[in-house]
Amino acid sequence: MSFESARSARTGLQLRSLVKAxxxxxxxxxxxxxxxxxxxxxxxxxxxxxxxxxxLALLFGAADMTTAKVSGTPASPVVTxxxxxxxxxxxxxxxxxxxxxxxxxxxxxxxxxxxxxxxxLLGKTVAVLGGAxxxxxxxxxxxxxxxxxxxxxxxxGASSFVNPLTALGMVETMRREGHTALVxxxxxxxxxxxLIKICKGERIxxxxxxxxxxxxxxxxxxxxxxxxxxxxxxxxxxLTEVLVATGATLAFDATGGGKIAxxxxxxxxxxxxxxxxxxxxxxxxxxxxxxVYGNLDPxxxxxxxxxxxxxxxxxxxxxxxxxxxxxxxxxxxxxxxGRELETTFASAxxxxxxxxxxxxxxxxxxYGKRASGEKFLIVPSKGGA
Length: 385
Description:
By secondary structure, this protein is of the alpha/beta class. It is built from twelve helices and 20 strands.
């Protein structure tokens, strides 16, 4: 589509997720009117939007995607899937609400409001944050846009917010809470690779936990010093050794379910008691903390409380963290992302799909795996608008 024709576009497709009272998930494309931008708003033609794990959580809800079926037409598919009875209660808050999906993306400003700041963005390629990014057009406040360096393609800027700010937020949380090193699970992900670069550059000890042996060598080749495979029979011993080497007492867990969070806390306790000068029946007095920030494993979180009394396990989300540190600190983080967009914060994608292609069973099976290093990109403009 030419720039001029894009400026005149008044409607565009948007991907929606609907949980019905019957216990069925429905994914479809709907035609949405493109709003006229207000004085400090712009209309962005979205050309790239990543499928982050947090997006998949909203897209699929609690549905069992192995039950997914497709109807409709190739240009306008409709996907339905069954939500297991035991999980329907968790979906009660979104029953019969057609919800747009997609936290972030990038594209070209094709219409702008009357203010000088909005007009200055016309024709610029911008990264954007604000939800509903699996759309052909989005009307956004100018504060939700970040101008990308000249020549940067939308695909390179599509993941400018969630992963980069999360990685930086983890390091900032470490500093603010008095820790000196980190543990990170799902370390072979795009986010994990960003964190490796940040910690290497700032000489921060980082323990990287992966789930495949091939990722161990990949991450070490990328500059990681300490990498453990959680599926290895020697994982517990290996984890303890790298915890001793780094002194890490803070972890961020993308897995959520299973035993990994408890294993990390246990390893931290073993590490701390090795260097203790005297015995304490309450365990180490150094606080150990695991923050769960993802849900790659939806099973219950399991742990054996054998790591003393000075510990914590809780949730961590990017948005509350950014609200906590305030606008000035957030802008500093964003400025750094802009400067290092094609180095520290570069993202790689294993595939691209159009809005319609994203609703094929083949694509759902691929990006629905949430496999480390296999992130997909939605290209709303692909196939025409």
